[in-house]
Specification:
Length: 473
């Protein structure tokens, strides 16, 4: 009989790696650091699409969001469905951002904590809060407000504590019943609003906070849609104090998550699950947090698109990998670890194989059309971005890690990478499902014709003085 091989995926929402000690950040995440010392740590991991829903659909399907719609069609079987058919107990615990909200997309157990739209009325966390007379929104902010404030719940009622408790209880249940499991533990934070409770603010109040980068770059050197976003969202007007306060609150939210990650790791040890459980820790995307005077995600700059990624398993020696990898490489990893054959619609490669892979030279990132589509190719040395209005960006990420100097003009490397990008888009396009528009149609919002529409859309969603409906991006 084949030995039990469990899979645990821990996701944070909008977590950038440089706020973790394992990636050179502040020393307030000892438990994630403990996991990193036992893992392959990927130093150059990127979201395939730095927006919540498309990034998460790619994690479920193994397909790029350019090729698969947000509402996953029946012809595409998710990783959870594949593993459930092989006898895995499949559970989604936390923020999943599925459409429909309760999927189920192969998950046999759902304990959800959503933070947008219908999800907040159909999930388990908000129902429990309401039944006990609590609301997490009493501070007056919602998840599209780029502001920091004090959390308004007792710690035992916070969403981070709830996410961690659900994970621990489920792991104990699986161990007690001797069930092979595939569990997704998805923390809502540190997504805005940046609202840690005072205890966690006090934990980091004397910590040196990483400073935003790229703030001295000239505004005229950015592509049109980036400049227009900054102007309409007014993020360029934030004072240094405001930015630092937001970053401090962001770090406090991470410190609380770290405590819950520690509880999860301790449970794996106490339940004798360490030797037969693969643990993957990552995020759906990052958060600009003032880099280039931007906030939120959407773009392919490092703060927005780069993510933490580490995998631990008894069969895998701890190390660090400096090759570019993608969230698309996570679903193939799970099938590989479970001893299952690859499926034809997966568009990444198993992370177990990438450190020894001499054939793949780049990964693809696409931003979504909600704030202007762009297509980015990341190699070991360069990051090249093409905007469908013809603008190009090229950065030597070894020499210019903060992406201050666009060297795309009159550069042979630009031409070479543009050809490579076209090849990669054609590869993805061959598997594009028929109800997904062609890539260039998705990029039409970039044209000047849509300038007023873009300005209105960004301002209504992300200006802190507006309270408009938010659609989960």
């Amino acid at each position: 009989m084949q030995a039990t091989k469990n899979i645990l995926l821990i996701i944070c929402d909008q977590l950038r790696p440089d706020f973790l000690e394992a990636y050179g950040g502040p020393a307030v995440t000892p438990n994630i650091s403990r996991l990193a010392r036992q893992s392959i740590v990927f130093d150059r991991a990127y979201s395939s699409s730095p927006s919540c829903i498309p990034a998460r659909m790619s994690l479920l399907t193994g397909m790029h969001s350019l090729a698969c719609p947000h509402k996953i069609p029946g012809k595409i079987r998710t990783t959870a469905e594949i593993l459930a058919d092989k006898g895995y107990d499949t559970a989604a615990l936390g923020k999943m951002h599925m459409s429909p909200v309760r999927g189920p997309y192969g998950f046999r157990k759902l304990m959800l904590s959503e933070d947008t739209g219908d999800g907040m009325f159909l999930d388990d966390y908000h129902r429990e809060l309401a039944e006990n007379g609590f609301s997490e929104w009493d501070h007056g902010l919602t998840n599209y407000d780029i502001l920091e404030t004090d959390g308004c719940l007792p710690e035992e009622k916070t969403v981070t504590r709830w996410n961690g408790d659900q994970a621990v209880n489920h792991l104990r249940e699986c161990a007690r019943n001797k069930r092979q499991f595939f569990s997704v533990v998805s923390f809502v934070k540190p997504h805005p609003p940046y609202d840690p409770i005072k205890k966690w603010k006090q934990t980091v109040e004397h910590t040196e906070i990483p400073k935003p980068v790229g703030i001295d770059r000239g505004s005229a050197t950015y592509p049109f849609v980036v400049s227009r976003y900054k102007e309409s969202a007014e993020t360029g007007n934030f004072t240094d104090t405001t930015v630092n306060n937001i970053r401090t609150a962001y770090l406090a939210l991470i410190a609380q998550i770290d405590e819950q990650v520690g509880n999860i790791l301790d449970t794996l040890e106490s339940e004798n699950l360490v030797d037969n459980t693969l643990v993957c820790f990552t995020s759906d995307h990052g958060d600009s947090l003032g880099d280039h005077r931007l906030f939120m995600k959407f773009f392919s700059y490092e703060g927005s698109a780069r993510i933490p990624l580490m995998i631990r398993a008894r069969e895998i020696a701890p190390s660090r990998c400096h090759r570019p990898v993608s969230t698309l490489d996570i679903p193939p990893l799970f099938l590989d670890y479970a001893g299952l054959p690859p499926v034809p619609w997966h568009q990444g490669r198993s992370l177990i194989k990438i450190p020894e892979d001499n054939h793949r030279e780049s990964i693809l990132i696409s931003s979504q059309p909600n704030f202007g589509s762009s297509f980015t190719l990341v190699t070991e040395k360069y990051k090249y971005t093409f905007w469908p209005n013809g603008e190009k960006e090229l950065y030597d990420t070894n020499m210019d890690p903060h992406e201050k100097n666009n060297i795309a003009a009159n550069n042979n490397i630009t031409r070479e990478l543009h050809i490579a990008l076209q090849y990669e888009l054609e590869r993805i396009n061959k598997q594009r499902l028929t109800n997904v528009p062609p890539f260039m149609e998705q990029g039409e919002i970039l044209t000047r014709k849509y300038e007023a529409e873009l300005f209105t859309k960004v301002r209504s969603r992300y200006c802190h003085h507006k309270k408009m409906p938010y659609h989960g991006y």
